[in-house]
Amino acid sequence: MKVYIGGYPKGRWYNRWFNWYPEQIQYVHIDRWDTWSMDHTLAHIVLPMLQQLARDKHGSPMVDAEDVPFELQGDTDKQEYLIHDRWDWVMKEMIYAFDCKVNKEEPFMRFDYATEKEEMIAEQARISNGYRLFGKYYEGLWD
Questions:
Q1: Residue 18 in domain
Q2: What pLDDT score does 13 carry?
Q3: For a tag on the chain, would you pick the N or C end, based on fewer CB atoms within 10 A?
Q4: Which residues face 4 on adjacent strands?
């Protein structure tokens, strides 16, 4: 796989005056083997992007109360104060899920099913929830 995405055009004064907006150069080449284990291939791209977004974010989208732990659900009067805390928690869960895909074995390979069944189920549930949150808040992945 080869990917090149150029810089985004800047909104300079001469762009508006001369009606000149250079296009963003994009190049994506997908080899046949890139789709063999596409979830793993994409995780290598998504993980560093999520980590950078969590580090450099300038805002937070709205997060539903049912998607966060009880302590972040809060009162309806104080919802605006919890927006950033909720988004930080969602980002950590997404990063955890993709980090497990990239850097760890699957839970069923790490745990002994006979003695650690509950831990394995809890780990897989957390990973699956991170992927679910990624899908649900995909349009909130902006800076």
A1: no
A2: 59
A3: C
A4: 27
